[in-house]
Specification:
This protein is an alpha+beta fold. The protein has one domain (5-192): Thiol Ester Dehydrase, Chain A. It has helices spanning 23-33, 37-40, 42-46, 57-73, 147-152, 164-178, 182-193, and strands at 13-20, 83-89, 98-110, 117-128, 131-143. The two termini are 36 Å apart.
Length: 201
């Protein structure tokens, strides 16, 4: 089935399948993009609150993205995303972990300015043994099943489809999140989780 905007309903939940964290991939990603010691150096990592090597939070997000693409976006009318409003790394992720993806539809709204598409607000999670290790909230833009009918209803609700100032706001939020890389990301996330066991970026 080719998934369109009309196929998303608030409250719908989608199981995205599972992924096993591969140690070689995890380390290669960290060495290339996030070479903090607790991501790449076993000896140094053993002396940190994590007690050993943990995955980069950005690698964990990439794992979620792959599950989301395979289960939802592939073959859909996806037109991209203006960004995230939330990204939290809740617990450390390690090699060998089996993570399950879950997606919940929060809101849907047809676009007022682009009648051929609509915005879907989504809440994504990765869980280990039923416990979330990462969560995110973001917008997805999807083409509508009948663009002609959508054009007739273009004077309906504002789709907040990422155009103009809304896109700037969303992208600014995503940029703020991305700015929390490095040691500050570890500090912020650890503080949010309230213990040294929180995941680092």
């Amino acid at each position: 089935m080719r998934r369109t905007f009309e196929d998303f309903r608030p409250g719908d939940r989608h199981d995205l399948g599972t992924a096993v964290i591969d140690e070689a991939e995890m380390l290669a990603f960290a060495r290339r993009y996030d070479p903090q010691p607790f991501h790449v150096d076993p000896a140094v990592a053993a002396e940190t609150p994590f007690g050993g090597i943990i995955a980069s939070g950005w690698f964990t997000m990439a794992v979620f993205m792959r599950l989301y693409v395979d289960a939802v976006l592939a073959g859909s009318t996806s037109q991209g995303s203006p960004g995230l409003s939330e990204l939290r790394w809740l617990l450390p992720v390690r090699a060998g972990d089996v993570l399950a993806g879950r997606l919940t539809v929060l809101e849907v709204a047809p676009s007022q300015t682009r009648p051929g598409r609509g915005t879907v607000v989504l809440h994504g999670e990765l869980l280990r043994d039923g416990t979330p290790v990462m969560r995110c909230t973001f917008r997805g833009l999807f083409g509508r099943r009948d663009a002609t009918a959508a054009a007739d209803g273009a004077d309906g609700a504002d789709g907040a489809d990422g155009a103009g100032s809304q896109a700037a706001t969303d992208l600014a939020g995503a940029t703020d999140l991305a700015g929390a890389t490095g040691s500050q990301a570890a500090t912020d996330v650890a503080g949010a989780a309230g213990s040294p066991g929180a995941a680092a970026g």
